Amino acid sequence: PNTLDAHRVIRWAMNSGSQSAVVTDLFARYFERGENVGSHAILLDAAADAGMDAALVETLLATDADKAEIKAEIETAGRMGITGVPCFIIAG
Q1: What is the spatial distance between Cα 7 and Cα 61, in angstroms, rounded to a whole number?
Q2: How high is the pLDDT of residue 88?
Q3: Rounded Cα–Cα distance for residues 29 and 16 (Å)
Q4: What is the pLDDT along the chain (92 residues), one digit of tens a residue?
Q5: Among 8, 34, 41, 76, whose CB has the most other CB atoms within 10 angstroms?
Q6: Three-state DSSP state, 86
Q7: Residue 79 in 3-state DSSP?
Q8: Does residue 43 contact residue 77 with C-beta atoms inside 8 Å?
């Protein structure tokens, strides 16, 4: 699935202190349960399960909020040779 919106939700989860929970949940949904993590319904469930404001996430998903920033991060990762997740960059 296209994970652009999943990355947006993960970015927003950082602000609510629930980023780790969202990432863990999305990985389980995709890798263990075969769910479509590009689906807004799945993303909203994951956000709510992690304690995020699902109504706010739903509103943001309907916009272009943070799309340009996420695309820029993906392009930067590509230039670094990163082609998948999870990926960890430590000390630059």
Answers
A1: 11
A2: 85
A3: 21
A4: 999 999 999 999 999 999 999 999 999 999 999 999 999 999 999 999 999 999 999 999 999 999 999 999 999 999 999 988 788 889 97
A5: 8
A6: coil
A7: helix
A8: no
Sorted by sequence, the CB contacts under 8 Å of residue 29 that are 6+ apart come out as 35, 37, 42, 46
Q: Residue 80, SS3? A: coil
Closest by CA to 18, choosing from 44, 47, 41, 39, is: 47
List the one residue out of 10, 8, 26 whose CA is nearest residue 18.
10
Q: Which of 33, 36, 13 is nearest to 23 (CA)?
A: 13
Provide the b/e sequence for 7-24 (b: ≥16 CB within 10 Å).
Answer: bbbbbbbeebebbebbbe
